[in-house]
Amino acid sequence: MKLEIAVLSGDGIGPEVTEQSKKVLDAIAHKFDHTFIYKEALVGAIAIDKTGNPLPDETLDICGNTDAVLFGSIGHPKYDNDPSAKIRPEQGLLKLRKSLGLYANIRPVKAYETLLDKSPLKKEIIEGTDISIYRELTGGIYFGEKNLSKDGNTASDLCEYSKHEIERIAHLAFKAAHSRSKKLTLVDKANVLESSRLWRKVVTEIGEKYPEVALDFLFVDNAAMQMILNPSQFDVILTENMFGDIISDEASVIGGSIGLLASASIGDKFALFEPIHGSYPQATGKGIANPIASILSAAMLLEHFELSEEAELIRNAVDKSLKLKISTPDINTEYDNVTTSKVGDFIADYIEYPEDTNINFQNIHIGQSTII
Predict the structure, then answer these.
(1) Is 249 among the residues known to form the active site?
(2) Is 11 labeled as catalytic in the residue annotation?
(3) Are 66 and 6 in contact (CB under 8 A)?
(4) Residue of 23, 110, 118, 189 marked catalytic
């Protein structure tokens, strides 16, 4: 298969982790005789610095004329520390999602057996957790009308959803649940919000078309509590934009590091794949950023194009790297010589030469910069 991939590395650690994803994709291309062509483009703070625009027209044009987008991260302290800035890095990502019609954000959350002791939650609580969160991405309060009174003392943000917006992501979530454990939980605040009552009504109607999927409901405050008390009860979670943003970030603590969590943003025509972590500017250039979330996002990219065997091989390689403690300091305190690049090297090498794993393991931990 030939794929043209727009690569928007962005800011902070984005370029470092995205480089590892490309390394792994190149290994897949070599092993399975695919062709992946990368088209680099600017987004975020670096785009503002160079063009004055967090999403230059050239970047949007590249994204609209390639098969998929591989995204890094955006953000910089000079904007984080100035909430009043009129032009901000995150505006680029929001505009990109809207322009490409990326209405469904999918975030897998998994408790890896080899990392159960790395989570701040008890092992017996998180064991067996395997959740897929479906977050609506282009509606709700983030995109609603915003008002500030002339005296600056009163502000409002409109949370608005249409039946169509709810239906299209609900169908995706029900189909995912059908292929998994056949359970879907809608997270809302229907006891207070009219928009949530519409969500519950529409999702209930759609649920009748998927009778083999068990549908239940949780208010978002209870869902946030249950995510900590008993996360393994969940299979597929469906929710609106802001609730999904909060719930999925909360879920990131289950695996022990936000550096493990990948995501896909899907629309009817376009798709974008990115780690859920931010730009982590304090780690930029230090070789300590965990590339696994970005690498697993690349696996989701392959899965999107029905390259399931290739995606599974990446996931197997990631599992092996975690078992051998070939990972960055956020989850590995035993070895201090494993860098961002070395993790990528090992996973890419495992893909092409899985039988040489033990040799590769030794090379990594004696400090070699490349794998034989």
Answers:
(1) yes
(2) no
(3) yes
(4) 189
> What pLDDT is attached to residue 369?
41
| H or E stretch at 248 | helix 241-251
Write down the pLDDT at residue 88: 93
Q: Which residue has the tokens 């519409």?
A: 198
C-alpha 175/C-alpha 249 separation (Å) is 23
164-187 pLDDT per residue, tens: 999 999 999 999 999 999 999 999
Catalytic residue among 26, 67, 245, 319: 245
Rounded-to-integer distance, Cα 296 and Cα 301, Å: 9
Integer angstrom CA distances of residue 347 from 104, 107, 318: 28, 21, 6
Contact status, residue 168 vs residue 202, Cβ threshold 8 Å: no
Evaluate if residue 273 carries a pLDDT over 50.
yes
Catalytic residue among 61, 221, 268, 336: 221
Asked about 82 being catalytic, the answer comes back as no
What's the CA angle centered on 250, arms 245 and 252, to 5 degrees?
A: 100
Catalytic annotation on 189? yes
What pLDDT does residue 337 have?
A: 83
Catalytic residue among 26, 67, 130, 249: 249
Query: What is the C-alpha to C-alpha distance for residues 313 and 321, in angstroms, rounded to an integer?
Result: 12
pLDDT band with cut points at 50, 70 and 90 for residue 370: very low
SS3 assignment, position 101:
coil
Active-site residue among 103, 134, 142, 161? 142
Q: What is the pLDDT of residue 80?
A: 78
Q: Clarify whether 245 is annotated catalytic.
A: yes
- Asked if residues 73 and 274 have their Cβ atoms less than 8 Å apart, the reply is yes
What's the CA gap between 353 and 90, in Å, rounded? 39
Strand runs (DSSP E) across the chain, as ranges? 2-10, 35-40, 68-73, 104-110, 130-136, 146-148, 155-157, 183-188, 214-219, 236-239, 262-266, 271-275
Query: Environment class of residue 219 by beta-carbon count within 10 Å: exposed (0-12), middle (13-18) or buried (19+)?
Result: middle
Q: Closest Cα partner for 223 from 244, 209, 207, 208?
A: 244
Look up the pTM and report it.
Answer: 0.89
Token pair for 59: 């970047």
Task: Report phi then psi at 10, rounded to 5.
Answer: 80, -135
Q: At residue 365, does pLDDT exceed 70? A: no
